[in-house]
């Protein structure tokens, strides 16, 4: 079975400066899509976009902080005026500063809520009006296996991913068939995600837990599959985890 014959799509990817976002930008850029890499570390974005362009692709780098609604709106409006359309918005930016609740790292709880939930909502708020006007578009949310099960030290992170799952499912239910909605839920994947953990106990636990990580390409491939389907086929969710992850 084949996916759709490739038509070049304009794809915005948040959190494209490392890990899953970077792999997705490189993968989709290599397939001929026009990719917009968005995150805060612009030096990284420029470097990754430069490599995609050097390999014959089309990529641009855009500074964005997803916790700032105005930033995300300006990103999307800028893309639509520059490329004439927006086909896919990949809500991927996320952080995971794990800790037990009794460590009371309240600032980190709030940061997770701001990036993983508010950031996602800002992406939807920015892109949805364009998708409705164009009568077409595709939202991809990078949630987590943490959207399906809670682990100790992951109460707030998992809550943010349950929320991401619920918001994305609600978006799917409310959308007319011209708008497709996909949740990708990764298991343990190689990336910089665990670097955001400041709590020493959670850091130590993660070292063992993450030893079985699979490459970020495995998630990029799932995103490519979802967006490559014919317009009447909506891949609603894909869970991708290491074969050894229980
Ligand atoms: P990384 O830490 O490698 O990437 C996270 C990305 O998010 C970075 O590009 C970072 O860019 C960006 N980001 C963080 N905060 C902001 C912000 N305020 N505004 C804009 N961008 C931001 O981790 P992953 O690649 O693993 O994470 C990608 C997604 O995958 C996350 O949503 C994560 O929860 C999810 N996930 C990852 C798993 C894993 O095992 N790796 C498992 C399950 C889900 P910058 O700092 O430059 O802004």
Descriptive overview:
The chain has 246 residues and is an alpha/beta fold. The protein has one domain (10-240): 3-Layer(aba) Sandwich (Rossmann fold), CATH 3.40.50.720. It has helices at 19-30, 42-54, 69-83, 106-134, 155-174, 200-209, 217-227, and strands spanning 10-14, 34-39, 58-63, 88-91, 137-142, 179-186, 237-240. It has a 7-stranded parallel β-sheet, with helices on both faces. Helix 1 (19-30) packs across helix 7. The protein binds NADPH dihydro-nicotinamide-adenine-dinucleotide phosphate.
- What portion of residues belong to β-strands? 15-25%
Small molecules bound in the structure, each named once: NADPH dihydro-nicotinamide-adenine-dinucleotide phosphate
- Which regions contain 5 or more consecutive residues with pLDDT less than 50? none
**SSE-based structural type:** alpha/beta
Give the rounded overall mean pLDDT: 96
Q: Measure the end-to-end span.
A: 30 Å
Helix residue percentage: 40-55%
CATH H-level homologous superfamily name: NAD(P)-binding Rossmann-like Domain
Q: Can you identify the CATH class?
A: Alpha Beta
Q: Fill in the CATH topology.
A: Rossmann fold
Strand order of the largest sheet: 3-2-1-4-5-6-7
């Amino acid at each position: 079975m084949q996916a759709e014959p490739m038509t070049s799509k304009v794809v915005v990817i948040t959190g494209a400066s490392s890990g899953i976002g970077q792999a997705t930008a490189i993968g989709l850029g290599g397939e001929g899509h026009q990719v917009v890499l968005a995150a805060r570390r612009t030096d990284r974005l420029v470097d990754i976009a430069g490599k995609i362009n050097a390999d014959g692709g089309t990529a641009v780098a855009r500074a964005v902080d997803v916790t700032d609604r105005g930033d995300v709106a300006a990103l999307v409006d800028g893309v639509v005026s520059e490329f004439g359309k927006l086909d896919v918005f990949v809500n991927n930016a996320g952080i995971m500063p794990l800790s037990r609740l009794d460590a009371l790292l309240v600032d980190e709880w709030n940061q997770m809520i701001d990036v993983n939930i508010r950031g996602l909502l800002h992406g939807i708020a920015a892109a949805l009006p364009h998708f409705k006007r164009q009568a077409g578009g595709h939202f991809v949310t990078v949630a987590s296996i943490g959207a399906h099960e809670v682990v100790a030290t992951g109460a707030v992170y998992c809550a943010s991913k349950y929320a991401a799952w619920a918001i994305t499912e609600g978006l799917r239910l409310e959308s007319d068939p011209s708008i497709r909605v996909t949740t990708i839920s990764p298991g343990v994947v190689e990336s910089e995600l665990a670097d955001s953990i400041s709590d020493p106990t959670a850091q130590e636990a993660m070292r063992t837990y993450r030893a079985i990580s699979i490459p970020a390409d495995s998630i990029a491939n799932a995103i490519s599959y979802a967006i490559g389907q014919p317009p009447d086929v909506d891949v609603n969710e894909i869970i991708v985890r290491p074969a050894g992850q229980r």
